[in-house]
## 1
Amino acid sequence: MTVPEQKGKIFYMASAGARLPIKLHLSKTKSWWVGLAVCGLAAFAVLLRCLRLFDSSTNYIYNPDSYFFHWLAQRVTVGEAAPSSISGSNYTLHSGFAYPAAYIAKALSFAFHLSPADSLELVWKFLPAAIALISMMILYFAVAKLLGRRVAVFSVLTWALFGEAIFIGAAGNLDRDALSVLLLMVGAMLFCLSRSWRLNIGNRDVGWMVSGLSVLLVQVLLYLEWSIVGAAMLLAIILVYSVLKLLLEYSSLLEKEPNVKQRIATALRKSDLRTFVLVATVNLAAVGLQYHQSGAVINTVVGIVKGRFTGQFIWNKAYTSEEQGLSFQDLIGFQFFLILMGLGIYLAWKRRNDVMVFFAGWLASFLIVSLFSYRVIIDAVPAICVVSAAGLASLWGIMGSRNGRDLWKQLAILVMVVLLFLIPSVSAARLNQSSYVMAADKDWQQALAYLRENTPQDAVIMSQWSYGYWFLDVAQRRPFVDNGYYSYTIDKLHDVGLAYYTSNPSEAAAIMAKDGATYLVFGKQDLNIPAAIMEWAGVNGKEDSFPENSLIVRSLNGDFVSGDGLELVYRNNEVAILALTQPVQG
């Protein structure tokens, strides 16, 4: 693996005894300027991620799954047992930030005499930004060692400004993504630094073994926090690099070594795959012991790929983008970072630098997989930062040129850097408006408060599944369907779709009675996704709106008040709540 080698006043990248053409002129850069730049970027990054806290119109909890983890953390904070298992899920494992946040909240409550609710709220607001800050510092020191301080500073800049990095570190977003990305980055960096580890026992260097064991420890943490998927992703990152490294070494011998067997043996020796072999062997043994879990992961992956090619996301079409794949519009949304990523990948291919090949392989492979599942691109954020930083560093070299012919290039680069700051800042300020299901606004908070304060504790709330965790956490009532805990099935969503679409309140009442639901909740925003919900109900065609006489339209307009087993008990600008009064027979 490549490590920096200092020679005179220039840092060179050394690999296999040969200096590669990456030169970072850093001797003229004062350390305190670098420190000031990193601290300034870190402060700016935290500010961007906390901007949404200044918007009092929405709940401080951000991202639908965060509501579930908050609900779980609340139970842990007050000393309640983990919830009962539903659908075979074990909620003492694979719970993301829930347990760490709860234990931090307990410590704050003890130290500062705060109530459990107040301490957990404080943690939930600021822990994501703190994790982002920790991630940036780890990224800086690792990249500074691997590629030099200039690329390290630009890596921190990218982490501060890249849209997906802002999203996973946004205040109130304690879905597992920020922690997963941090652990993935730590594991990848440990492997990337493996050749620089030196630990001799007798005459043997066992640094590679220590590195491999460290990577395996991170995999265990990923498994505990995320499940087998997290551990598999880290293994995939290492596998992609090891294969690329072997192929590059082999290709470099095509003209030098005519014997194929000797060529393979030499490529294997130069690739130095000991750390990878150790990690892969232990993983294969673990898969053998947990084969049933690996089968479930394979089935999930196959389902996503099949759905991508056939377009059959029958019950997920309402909101889930993570199963729908990266689109051209998403790529355009990366803005100038897309140019920097492309340039960085090109430099990795042209220069064949080990470190750049590692991060470019990580980025390229995850980018391909994200065409089938958008969520995967989030797990490539560290690679995006390093590859983009390398591209920006190569462009930044033009800024030091005194050649008059480079003036327009320098001006273009300066404009791009200014826009790199401005565009993410505007996007971060509008984070709450990116999707209404991300955080409950005031109308929804009032409706959820009504459910919490005016309905029986055993009430079951029927609505489309996107609101499920809001009901569970904020309203403290059981949802009929949600994103995983009570889950959803085709049959359940079929009933939900019928309740929305029907023009006959007695039909909706009969469905609710059959399913054990006691309240039916409609959101005004549901009017924006009629095709998906009516597809659940089995309505053919591509309708762009619900029928005017449908129950959802009449309830939201206030045209339906009561009758046929249902009664409108609450309505505001965005939400209508119907109560089951008397189930209709037949």
## 2
Amino acid sequence: MPITFIDIERQKNWRIGLFFCLLIFLYFLFAFIIAQTIVFLFGWSNVFFVGSKIKYIAAITAFALTVSSVHFGISAFTAVDRVVEQIRAGVPDDEDGVHRVLLNVMDEIHIASGSKRQIRCLVIPTLSLNALAVTDLKGDAVIAITEGLLSRLKRDQLEAVMAHEAYHIFSGDCLEASVATSLFGVYAAAIEGVKDTVVQEFRAVPFLVLFWFLNSLGEIVTMFISREREYRADAGAVRITRNPVALAEALNLIAGRWSGSGFIHEGLEMLCISSPIPDHHDESEDWWDDLMSTHPPIGKRVDVLLQMARVSHSTLAGREKPRAVFQPEIEQLYYALDSEDTWIGPFRFSELTAFPWFTGSTKVSMIPTPSEFDDSVRSVDDIVRERIPVNLNMRTTFLCPACRQPLMKEAYVDTSVDRCVFCRGVLIDNDRIFRILARREIKCDERFRTLMRAVTADSLRSLTIRKQRLKERKLVHLTLCPRCGRSMFRSFYSYAFLIELDKCSMCRVTWFDADELDMLQCLIENKITDALVDRA
């Protein structure tokens, strides 16, 4: 196999040329079939064969050359933009602690490699564990890493993964995979995303045929992408970081978790550090598997790296980055003295604010019927003063949509949220939800599991009713967005995790009532971490 940059450059050039020739042939074949079909159906041979058959073939060839040149130019020069759009990657947040580490590591990779080429790093909003590199003919280059992998890797492991992807770009062997992906894989991925929505209609037939055609082309192109490039990138990462064990640990971690199946589409797999699509070819090494797979077995890659360091597999144990462990807190319930001097309850703080007689001087207690001089009897103002943080600089101008108290800026798992210290509701920017879910772990006790099952069952009934009564509108109280004051729409987080949340499409924020964020975390921990890993 070629091991020098000169060999890689030569291999890259002839393969990109081969892709262009393949594209010309496909457009020629397409135009020829269309023309012959018209001749057969309408008898227009006198139109197509005026002059000679040589002119007829030349015209088709010119058409194929023109269209394929346009297709190739658009695809090869915009590969980065097209792939980034497919995976919905975003720029790292400078205010986020974990993202700052990523930016620092990228700067170190540039310095250690000695290359003048600048690479942008992006973050993919998914809990899966994967990373990819993409570049194009205009010189743009990007390394994208998933939020799940970024949150689970220690710094030395993150350096190894970023060095692996950077080597693909610096050496030039990433370009052929990027061009191939942009020519065929991106279209197959796009059609894969919409084919389920049109499968019930007659118009779905052309879509399905096109999907099959592009998917088949992708498999053909896969034969030209050598899986040996991953071994070279592993070795290149070791030369940059001088730490083969860190890359072996990262690969071992990726192999044991969800690597993005269903989120990163099949057409993009040749760009990833590990194939997101489960395929038996990836774990075998005969000639047919070498031809049909773009990634060698991860087990063998790990073995090679460990041999470099002369260490055993036992070294890989216990090296995952620890995540913050949270115990779902139980919100305090209060009994309140109403306008008729009767103790009622228990209620959450946010529920008490709905009563018209509720004021700052209202007496509350944590026991049902306290005596007049009981120490547990206190006014709402007293409780409010105790709950206000000492640092008032953290107070925001936004009011809690439930209890109308100012939200407090709070540091939370290396990012920030706006929390109500009274009802424990939390306002989170949409792009930060994945970060929080990936970086923390919830210990779900039996009480919380029972609550989670009850909420999910109620949401499932609500979803069933909605489907049966599509034309009926259910009158519900709409929560007002704390930032813009507009009505938020209430919808499920997803149809896989039936937790109803309040979302503002203008401000791109989501309001979580007390327990809702923890319930969502428990659902994800149980369904993704266990079910998808077992399936993989």
## 3
Amino acid sequence: MQYQQIRNFAIIAHVDHGKSTLADRFLEITNTIGKDKLKEQFLDQSPISRERGITIKLAPVRMKYKLWEKEYTLDLIDTPGHMDFSYEVSRTLAACEGAILLVDATKGIQAQTVAHFNAAKKENLKLIAVVNKIDLDSANTKEVTKDIVELFGFKEEEVHFVSAKTGENVDKLLQAVVEKIPPPKVSENDPFRALVFDAIFDEHRGVIIFIKVVGGRVKKHDQIEFIQSKTKVLVSEVGFFSPSLIGKEELSEGEIGYVVTGIKDIRLTRVGDTLRFLGSNVSPLTGYDMPKPMVFFGVYPKSSNEYVHLREALNKLALNDGSLTVTNEYSAFLGSGFRVGFLGLLHAEIVKERLNQEQNINPLLTMPRVLYKEENGEMLEPYMNLSIFVPADYVGAVLTVAQNKRGTLLDMSYHKQNAILKYEMPYSMFIRGLSSDLKSVSSGFASLDYEILGYKKADLVKMDILINDNIIDVLSELVYSDEAVFVARERIAKLKENLPKQQYKQVIQAAIGAKILARTEISPFRKDVLAKMSGGDRTRKDKLLEAQKKGKSKLINISKVEIPQKALLSMIES
């Protein structure tokens, strides 16, 4: 294949701006998928992606397109738009020479639009600006175009206008891809070298790696190796995505395709690594760091019988999701479970849905925590650079929310009717409702993007919840010292509201070490022990009441503390 007629490109945009629908039109125009087989969001093979209407996994596909009597190979990679999956976009961009920057004509530029634009410019990609959904009555095409020109530096005549839903002008956009996006930069005589930008696990064929060939060629039976992980591979098949896997004789310079490795453990491979022939001396390509989980949940089976099933299900998911980390954990209250790391709250939500839909497991997730560190006796917490994109009318309300979330304002700029606010803020604010609070005060218009900045000192203390002096370990959490009393009162009030009465008194406390911050009680059921008495003097009644009192005191000491799942869930959700 002549690399001059290859175009490797991605579609990047904020979530729900129409990336997958545009990809559908491309597949239709190029006859890659027949109309009878094409369904909406074709490249989103996950049922959860379809249900939510969002892309959560990059998806490559090869299309053939004839223009000027030449046939071009278009390798498209559809990308996620949500900030939890920004790492998928960075991996995609490293394998491309250009990208379509898609903006919804009804919503305009949003936070992920800006973030993806900046990421693409860092990779020196050729960008094509596109305004989508021009067919809608609510489309504000002129204003959105002006914003694109002002914010990103495009010329007005460079902006394309399409309706991915109806197909209007999509054929012209496809032609622009061929005209404007350059072919891959390769040296024809270079030895084999390829960038690994994704990997999946197949039960029958082992690990299948997605690659961009930068130099040379690779074919079946070649012996190759990962430069960094040192894993050796005997190639059992190569091919391209259509979007199903289609085998071919070889992959040559400039092509995007796959290699079937036969490896049974995906951890032996590394996304971002470089492939080369076994024993060759070529240097590694510039890769990228794998994402690190930032939000951790305890994941427990609702009954001990489900433990093995849950363990197998989590390990199976981890085979195809390198960002998911799973370690064993034990709770004195819930028994054996797992500490699972996620990229963010949406990632956690999706994994829980997958466990439910694919494995028929509905696990219990404990309170989310971020990854704290301790150095020289001091607690450190992760910080992020946060960008908030919001209509100017809501700036005041957003400033208030950000201040309440311990944000430090770094910069604020206005572009037409919109403002971009840049903050430095603890990452833990995401699990304290940052997104929902900003959406609430901005009538849903605020959009966010972030990148992890590093760790900073934090004045944190460990707060325990006790019931009758028994620590409920799954409810322990790190809180800011200056908020400890407020949080303590809030937690025990919530628990009191949701715990049922028992035969004994329940004393609920929130404490830091031996210091009690807040306390409340739930009175026991009161049985009328005097009901059957038909007579007798006062001393006899007092004896019965004293015996009842001693019995209830004994119950407090010997009874096992039980928290119904409803009460536990109410604490987690709060």
## 4
Amino acid sequence: MIYRFQKEEKQEILTGHLHLGGASPGGERIDVNSAYLTRGGKPWIPVMGEFHFSRYNRDQWAEELGKMKAGGITLVSTYLFWIYHEEIEGNFDFSKDKDIRAFVSECGRAGLEVVLRIGPWAHGECRNGGFPDWLLQKTYPLRGNHPEYLSQVKRWYARIAAEVRGLFYRDGGNIVAIQLENEFGGGAEHLAALKRIALECGLDAPLFTVTGWNSAAGVEIPVDEVVPVFGGYCEAPWERHTRPLPPSPHYFFNRMRNDSAIGADLTTYTKPAGEDSWQLPYERYPFATCELGGGIQVTHHRRPIIHPMDIYAVALVKLGDGNNLPGYYMYHGGTNQIGQRTTLQESRASGYPNDYPILSYDFQAALSEYGEVRGQYRLLNLLHLFVQDFQQDFAPLGAVDALEKIERNDMVSLRYGMRTDGYKGYVFINHYQRLTKLRDVAHVVIDTGSVVFPPIDVKGEISFFLPFMMKLGTGTSSVILEYATAQPVCHMDSVYFFVEIPGISSVYRFTDGREVKADAGRDSLFWMEQTGIVTLTWEEANYLRRLDCIQEADHGSCLYLGEECDLYCCDGKLCCVQPGKHVYYRWDGKKFLPFSIGEPADEPKIAWQPVLEAPFELPYEGELQIGGERTVIWKKFTVEGEHGFISIEEDYDVAQIYADGRLVADHYYYGRPWRVPAELLAGKECYLVMSERKDDFYREF
């Protein structure tokens, strides 16, 4: 069957209308038009990943930021939770793991830029949405333009500004954006006031953003003063019921920016009757995201299991729909701190609709609470490598819909979309719906209007995109790829790397009529004039990384292939996420050369002992009794060896681990083994405390 597209409706790109942008001391500018961001006057697609510095040990920031950069992140977004820094009124704390200046500087050393999400209200599944308890006890209304509240906000913003003074883009630093508030639906006047206060305090970056959801019409914003950013999750832990959800619309090419269901548990604003209607003017802003789910947090009443394709397919669909700033929440999980007076997680006890673990903010993210790699980390990097290398050509391409609209419950029809300028571009196909099997589609012929692809069969759980009329190489040595039935990933000089789509043969056809059917593998290089093409297998491409390591400076920026191991760079040194000795390959311009990294490492050993009676009174027993009284079981254990992880495969509702009498980890069981780093437990007297599991939550196991 032939699949065609609707007529492309080119929209005028507006420039100079937004009161945003800024220059570095060297004169480079970051600006934004109605379609995309620019840097130095050229289209720019940053890739943003959320990582909360205050939820991680600062001694490990450099290592984890190296992993993020290796995964294709270029922009780190991070919340400043007010309650973390001023739990007691008047006593600010920006020390140790709360040192935002040290974190921003560490990002700079890793070659990463920063988005500060300064609140004042943040959410982030933090107690009171990040507001200190003392602020809630004030007599004036919060999250609005009451003078006394704005005075408190100004005091908070001023302290943040003092901590990061000199680190902004205008100063030659790496803070390029600021997010004001979060999930706010109270009107544009307050957001405008927050921007004014931020600027008065010295919080000045080229980009100011706000979250754009919270109503079907989009949040009311001060038009042209901020960029609205959006999100899309594969599950909804904020839903209060325990039933399965209907098919997510984020797996369809529908150009939906605004998912008004995000955070619906906390949306309280209702526009008064009689006010003028509002519709967010999307046409004035690029499609940008800050909360594409990099995973999803487990709540006590909803415990989904996230699979890598759950995340990758949503990100790919949004890219096909026109997203020009992929941003993930969370990209890296973390661990909540415990305050001086209270725990700091969101819970029903603190007046919120959901119960979350006291400590764990793992989020089933691309990088786990303890820095382990999950499958979506590898898949997403395929997209990140692509946008980094082809952003200047890709960002201006408009999104074009399929000729036939696909309904939300349609699990049979082909899901496809296109980014194009009317001549060249990319066809996007998604054959994945979370928790639902889609029917295979045979003999798919894509007609872009300028190119007709050969028939392919779309089957299995796959999401991919294919290029057409793509220029490879530069100058007189360039060639035009009429189409390829393989997905482009990146290039190094004149060699272009593609990945073979599972179930689809890799065919490259050029405008001069030449055609190559390529075998896949790291040694698959073929040349077309002076342009080389390598087709990697899907499995190989999962471990493809572009890294800059000082120890291999003579090679500059290099491509690496780990042999089922994840490579990254930290402090100029090539590292591997997994302990032990591993094989990897480095591209030398013509082939991948083999090397090895690491030393053999022993797995940690765990020894269990029964416990007949509780050895001490539990300081956080309430977490074990959520939803009613439950039987509690104790187990004592010791861990030998500080490298690697122990895996707890018990059956429970909630589990806590105490090491030398201190709560160091907790977990809601959701059907997967609980992975805990041995270094957290080695050499300590450890107890595992578990409450009985009941059938009182949504589950997928």
